[in-house]
Design brief:
Elements lengths: L9 H36 L7 H19 L3 H28 L7 H20 L3 H6 L2 H16 L8 E3 L5 E5 L3 E6 L5 E5 H6 L10 E6 L2 E6 L2 H11 L2 H5 L1
Antiparallel strand pairs: 1-2, 2-3, 3-4, 5-6
Helix pairs in contact: 1-2, 1-3, 1-4, 1-6, 2-3, 3-4
């Protein structure tokens, strides 16, 4: 989707890589679980038909792809999970056809639906992160490590003791209000970005509202965060401060 050019900055590129790696790791966990499920199903099915040893082999491939993506998150690892998920779907379709021809009976509907859902999810994430392929591979590991630490530190801070931190009503996003910019992080490192005052203000549709709403055209999808009255006052005070006016 079209995004704001500010996300092309070095800081935001590093944060995008952090978010992408987190997304890939989440997909890796899903892949491992999916592999285990298919391994158990295959182990039970192979007793009825040795042909199902193929399902066990594909389940092991999914487990391997998931473990690799978890240990070394990359788009190649995510693509491997997507490809194996398609192979699992094809396997289930093939078994369904063979059973239908043999008159053995139909495979339960979920035997086709879940593999299809898994394939769609993995490929959707791969396509969504595709434009970050070069950034993920080229980004210095130390830079990614430092950016990750900054994101985690924001959620470790005690909100009541931090006048420079605003939290969304859903509690899934925090914003550190710095002297000339805002640092926004979504819980679990799903999203994170750095934005100067001017850009931050333009992302608020109506500053006159008692409860503000922040709408951001993020490269990984549109983001909308709502703030309660107390946190909205923090943001308004920050935007109207002398430093903000001077910038």
């Amino acid at each position: 989707m079209q995004h704001d050019p500010l996300f092309d900055s070095t800081e935001n590129q590093a944060l995008l890589v952090v978010c992408a790696r987190k997304t890939i790791r989440n997909a890796a966990i899903g892949g491992i679980i999916w592999g285990i499920i298919n391994l158990l199903v295959g182990a039970a099915a192979v007793q009825a038909n040795l042909l199902n040893v193929g399902l066990i082999a594909l389940a092991c491939l999914m487990l391997g792809a998931g473990i690799l993506a978890l240990a070394k998150p990359s788009l190649h690892a995510l693509l491997s999970e997507a490809v194996v998920s398609v192979l699992l779907l094809c396997w289930n379709i093939g078994i369904t056809v063979l059973n239908a021809r043999a008159g053995v009976g139909n495979l339960p509907v979920h035997g086709l639906i879940w593999p299809l859902v898994a394939a769609v999810i993995f490929f959707r994430e791969y396509v969504k992160l595709g434009h970050l392929k070069d950034a993920i591979s080229a980004m210095n590991h130390q830079t990614v490590k430092e950016a990750t630490a900054l994101c985690k530190q924001l959620f470790k801070s005690k909100l009541k003791e931090s006048s420079d931190i605003a939290e969304a009503s859903s509690r899934r996003c925090r914003v550190r209000l710095m002297s000339d910019a805002a640092f926004c992080v979504q819980r679990n490192l799903a999203r994170a970005f750095y934005m100067d005052r001017a850009h931050f203000q333009t992302c608020i549709p109506d500053l006159n509202q008692k409860k503000l709403r922040l709408v951001v055209r993020h490269p990984l999808g549109k983001l909308t965060y709502a703030f309660d009255k107390k946190n909205s006052e923090k943001i308004k005070s920050w935007l109207s401060s002398p430093a903000a006016q001077a910038s």
